[in-house]
Amino acid sequence: MLLKDVPLARKSIDIDKVISVSKRARATLLEVRDRMLEPHPRKTPPVISSTRLMQLLDVDRSRFNYLIQKGEIPNGIIKGSNRGREFLLAVVQDTVRRLVPERLRPPGAPGMTLCVGNFKGGVGKTTLAVALAQGLSLHGHKVCMMDLDPQASTTTLFGKVPEAEVEESETVMPLVYGDVETLAGVPQETYWPGIDLIPSAPYLFGADYFLPSRQADDPSFEFWELLNGAMDPLRDKYDVIIIDTPPTLSYLATAAFMASDGMIVPVPPEALDYASSTMFWGQFAELFASLRDSRKLSKTFDFVKIVLSKVKAKKVKDRMDATDATRSLLQHTYPEFIGRCELPVSDVVSNAAAEFRTLYDLSSYAGSAKAVAAFDAFVEEIELEMLETWKSVQEEVTDGVS
Ligand SMILES: Nc1ncnc2c1ncn2[C@@H]1O[C@H](COP(=O)(O)OP(=O)(O)OP(=O)(O)O)[C@@H](O)[C@H]1O
Ligand SMILES: [Mg+2]
Residues in the chain with pLDDT < 50? Predict the structure, then answer.
């Protein structure tokens, strides 16, 4: 039999077919998302148990009861037959702010900008960025979350459907086009009190076409400074601005790195992720060196933190496994950057994500204690870096005065 006589088993796929599949995929996603996030409209903030509040305040039960008696902690909502208490998130934040003020931004210090980046996809950037925002907010910090990834996963986790519910004018795109000069007024309230969001949507793909042509048309334009100045009004209003970036060295990601005081790079301890982390630093260093040499750019970070993410549990205790080997390689390569905390791979995190939720969205922490403890420790590690920076800013101010 000649090849031409072989009956065609499959139909060829033309552009119309691709378009119809993409429409079907979008409709299915919208439907699934709606179902997951019911009841309409979308997400509600978690209610916080008294055990969790005690943990956030770092007090034991007897001290906690004493503080309730004294009226320092509100009564909360008494629930169920065992008369346990629950607290609204906004009440928790207010209580933590009042009773643990030493963790707060000192008056006069600017809010910090932290970006989460890695050119490798799927390493846990969005999970970590949103957890950091929610964890810091539980400590009473006022947070602005900026989504710069056109895939808009962060926006989705905040209960918004990027393709259907985000207008271009709500994103950073007007700034990209040069229609506005600042991001004042752009962050919008979310279901989570104390976290405002600058959402993303697929419009942001356009930034990587528009910014290079804007740069070519106007050599005095500095695309890498696009966010830095525009964020100044936000640095007063928020204690921390957290930027989630796409898995590419895009124009917007570069501008985000340039606007940031701290950079957080999640890297799973896997050989291929280690290899791509070296490429990340290579490209990052090359870009910054070329801007320094050609445009006299200068940039310092207050801290850079590599966080081991999606760390698998050991199968055999006391025996070195592939995770240990890559961990030690990472520690050897980046001793000054490696953070203390590790984020374990956790079914609670992935199951929550399957319903467009986060670890901190779950009001019942049953089965999630280990993951919550690891994410809490990470949040505290970053908070310590913020406190260090704020302390040094204050010392500079005091030195300047004396
Ligand atoms: N600690 C974890 N435990 C279990 N699953 C996790 C964990 N961290 C992230 N994931 C899952 O891994 C997948 C990728 O995570 P995430 O979206 O945070 O990565 P990303 O780096 O932002 O990806 P992208 O580059 O596409 O933006 C998601 O399904 C997420 O739920
Ligand atoms: Mg992401």
Answer: none
